[in-house]
Design goal:
By secondary structure, this protein is an all-alpha fold. It has four helices and no strands.
């Protein structure tokens, strides 16, 4: 979602995997050993995210219609 706000279209997090492995591979050797799996998981999650987000939004608005009004969040839930 934030990538889209920055003007990035499509999956992009996988592009950072090489650098993450370079920086963190010594501490987390499983990301080195399972690089292909990690790449597939990242891509899968990025492709599923818009659909999951839309489904969650629909579920929320159906379950809590009062809280989807423009005044959400209700008084008392505002961050200080």
């Amino acid at each position: 979602m934030h990538g889209h706000k920055l003007g990035i279209e499509g999956p992009f997090l996988g592009e950072y995997l090489a650098k993450i492995i370079e920086l963190m591979g010594d501490v987390y050797p499983e990301i080195v050993d399972n690089r292909e799996l990690v790449e597939r998981i990242i891509l899968s999650e990025e492709e599923r995210w818009p659909h999951a987000r839309a489904r969650a939004r629909l579920t929320w608005s159906t379950s809590f219609p009062r809280w989807t009004a423009p005044s959400f969040p209700p008084d008392g839930l505002h961050a200080s």
